[in-house]
């Protein structure tokens, strides 16, 4: 699939949300076709740097071609953003001015006829972002007990007919292809008065379960905060309520100085605010963008900014664990790392 066919969602809004500046250092945790990364590099010139991460090797290949004009300023890594700290440690890429998560499937994945993400094409039930991963959608569909399968479809797909669907799946096993599963779900759930296909929620649930998307998101958000420098921006584009709820609750929690349960007279948690929510109002695509790119209609962008007090550099009284590790080689000059460590030691 050519890189030019990739349409980044909320491109202008994302660049504004990240407050991209010339010479800035940014991380795109979900590189995809490289559309957002390209926009970041255009705005951060001259001197901008970008670390792009994607679990899908095909996305890395496409993005590398698109970002060829910025070769030398862009580092692309085939890995899961759940390993964000380790990746940044390896390449000495921190602190940064902005971090982006675009949690939707890319056009590359949806159009890939052998990936099993879409029921528009008949393909094996795969749904893995990284082909090296062992667990596939077929494994879940054909081996999970009925109750566990139903609970997974209900929890990750918010599907009201989850138990009926699970019962029918177990009865019709083995299921091997996307069209087999889609037709079965449509038969059980029936056509609804909505724009989405009856199988959409079941496919979403399977994809989330296969790739552990929600668990990885929660982990990566926590890591992202430590990597942001003063006034660094965290921007997250989500596409369904489960993701958006995690992002919303995370930002709200990290914007509070106390997260003790209600009713406790004195704070005992010791929590200190690390983020400031930039906009309480969710940023959504314009009608014009939705007409141009219908896949953007469910996109929701949330933005937060790293805050600190007068005592330290990262908003914490203690140096983050990842900074205390010794990294003598990497993409960034070791002298800069030394100065950062010295700032913590003298605080």
What does this molecule look like?
- The chain contains 15 helices and seven strands.
- The chain has 347 residues and is an alpha/beta fold.
- It folds into two domains: 3-106 and 215-345, Vaccinia Virus protein VP39 (Rossmann fold, 3-Layer(aba) Sandwich); 112-211, Orthogonal Bundle (DNA polymerase, domain 1).
- Strands 3-2-1-4-5-7-6 form a seven-stranded mixed β-sheet, with helices on both faces.
- Strand 2, helix 3 and strand 3 (74-78) form a beta-alpha-beta unit.
- The longest helix has 15 residues, at 213-227.
- The N and C termini lie far apart (51 Å).
Give keywords.
alpha/beta; seven-stranded mixed β-sheet; 42% helix; globular; 2 domains; Rossmann fold; 15 helices
For CATH, the homologous superfamily of the largest domain is named as Vaccinia Virus protein VP39
Can you write the helix and strand succession as a string? Answer: HEHEHEHEHHHHHHHEHEHEHH
Biggest beta sheet attributes = 7 strands, mixed
Helical percent range?
A: 40-55%
Rg value: 21 Å
Which architecture of the largest domain would the CATH scheme give at its second level?
Answer: 3-Layer(aba) Sandwich
Class by alpha and beta content: alpha/beta
* Structural domain count: 2
Provide the low-confidence segments as ranges.
309-319, 322-337
In CATH, the topology of the largest domain is named Rossmann fold
Which sequence of strands runs across the widest sheet? 3-2-1-4-5-7-6
Strand fraction: 5-15%
Terminus-to-terminus distance: 51 Å
């Amino acid at each position: 699939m050519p890189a030019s066919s990739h349409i980044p969602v909320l491109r202008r809004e994302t660049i504004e949300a990240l407050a991209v500046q010339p010479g800035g250092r940014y991380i795109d945790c979900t590189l995809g076709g490289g559309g957002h990364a390209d926009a970041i590099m255009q705005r951060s010139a001259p001197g901008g740097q970008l670390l792009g991460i994607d679990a899908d090797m095909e996305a890395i290949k496409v993005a590398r071609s698109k970002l060829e004009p910025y070769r030398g300023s862009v580092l692309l890594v085939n890995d899961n953003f759940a390993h964000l700290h380790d990746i940044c440690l390896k390449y000495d890429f921190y602190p940064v001015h902005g971090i982006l998560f675009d949690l939707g499937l890319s056009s590359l994945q949806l159009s890939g006829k052998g990936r099993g993400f879409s029921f528009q094409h008949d393909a094996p039930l795969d749904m893995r972002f990284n082909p090296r991963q062992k667990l596939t959608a077929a494994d879940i569909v054909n081996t999970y007990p009925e109750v566990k399968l139903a609970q997974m479809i209900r929890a990750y797909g918010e599907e009201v007919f989850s138990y009926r669907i699970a019962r029918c799946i177990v009865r019709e096993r083995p299921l091997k292809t996307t069209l087999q599963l889609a037709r079965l779900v449509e038969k059980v759930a029936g056509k609804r008065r909505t724009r989405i296909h009856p199988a959409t929620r079941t496919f979403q649930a399977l994809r989330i379960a296969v790739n552990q998307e929600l668990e990885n998101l929660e982990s990566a958000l926590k890591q992202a905060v430590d990597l942001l420098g003063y006034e660094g921006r965290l921007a997250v584009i989500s596409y369904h309520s489960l993701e958006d709820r995690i992002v919303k609750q995370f930002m709200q929690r990290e914007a509070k100085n106390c997260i003790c349960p209600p009713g406790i007279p004195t704070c005992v948690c010791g929590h200190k605010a690390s983020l400031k929510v930039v906009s309480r109002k969710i940023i959504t695509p314009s009608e014009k963008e939705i007409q141009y790119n219908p896949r953007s209609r469910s996109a929701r962008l949330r933005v937060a900014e790293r805050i600190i007090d007068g005592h330290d550099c990262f908003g914490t009284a203690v140096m983050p664990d990842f900074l205390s590790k010794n990294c003598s080689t990497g993409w960034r000059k070791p002298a800069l790392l030394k100065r950062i460590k010295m700032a913590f030691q003298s605080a």
